[in-house]
Amino acid sequence: MRLEGKVAIITGAGQGIGEVYARRFAKEGARVVVADVNAEKGAAVARDVGQVFERVDVSSEDDTQRLCRAVAERFGRIDVLINNAAIFFGIDNQNTSYAYLRKIFDVNYFGAWLMCRAVFPHMRDGGGGSIINQSSGAAYMHPEYPIEGELPSFHYSVTKAAMKHYMAGSVGRYNIRVNAIAPGPTMTEATRQGVPAHFLDMIVNFQMAIHRALDPDDLTGTAVWLASDDAKMVTGQVIPVDGGMIMLG
């Protein structure tokens, strides 16, 4: 087991990709904190994998601080943070208002920033750790939205572009690593409901070298590696896991 004894907080772990991360990390020996704003779903996942649930609203500074204090007090350390919580399921791509853009940023970007800020002193005092931010292939795409009176906000793509490897240079001296995973189209319930089938088919068949949409399980190996000591000298990187949709280098 590659994560034996490590303590990992995974936000948005009550469903979708976060849930699959939680299940894989538990199998790899980690002590997993399933953190989610939805107490019913989060607690159910935690019970099913024999781990701990903590409710958190990542857009609340008080809540993120409380969560990290509670985890540190319970386990004595925090080794891994996966910033997976995001607004994607049910997102309104037609809402281009500034207020809605702020709402998306409050969770998708500032929520991750607040979690990093809350976990930092615990990782620093514990000798280091691994922060894994969930970016997206959407960060690299440039969809053409019709402009009818006002500029589109591109809210999801913009927030995921921000979720890359910020702060790696500042926290490396404390042996804290910061990396990001940028998944391609991943077949969660949110993707099935929110992405038109013809658009998904176009990406898979014409933009991906491997012509298959991802399953959430396809992402877990990269997350485990980044959390493990095998990646102890890897920081400031964005790793696309997308079947060759984005080829960096």
Taken from the alpha-carbon principal axes, the silhouette is globular
Helix content: 40-55%
Distance between the termini: 32 Å
Q: How many helix segments?
A: 10
Secondary-structure element sequence? EHEHEHEHHEHHEHHHE
* Strand order within the widest beta sheet: 3-2-1-4-5-6-7
Q: What's the oligomerization state? A: single chain
Secondary structure category: alpha/beta
Could you name the key traits of this structure?
249 residues; alpha/beta; seven-stranded parallel β-sheet; 10 helices; 42% helix
Characterize the structure shown.
The chain has a 7-stranded parallel β-sheet with strand order 3-2-1-4-5-6-7, with helices on both faces. The mean pLDDT is 85. The chain has helices at 16-27, 39-49, 61-75, 98-108, 110-125, 155-162, 168-171, 189-194, 197-206, 217-227, and strands at 7-11, 31-36, 52-55, 80-83, 129-134, 176-183, 238-241. The two termini are 32 Å apart. Helix content is 42%, strand content 15%. With 249 residues, it is α/β, with parallel strands linked by helices. The protein is built from 10 helices and 7 strands. It is globular and about 50 Å long.
Architecture blueprint of SSEs:
Layout: E1 7-11, H1 16-27, E2 31-36, H2 39-49, E3 52-55, H3 61-75, E4 80-83, H4 98-108, H5 110-125, E5 129-134, H6 155-162, H7 168-171, E6 176-183, H8 189-194, H9 197-206, H10 217-227, E7 238-241
Parallel strand pairs: 1-2, 1-4, 2-3, 4-5, 5-6, 6-7
Helix pairs in contact: 1-2, 1-10, 3-5, 4-6
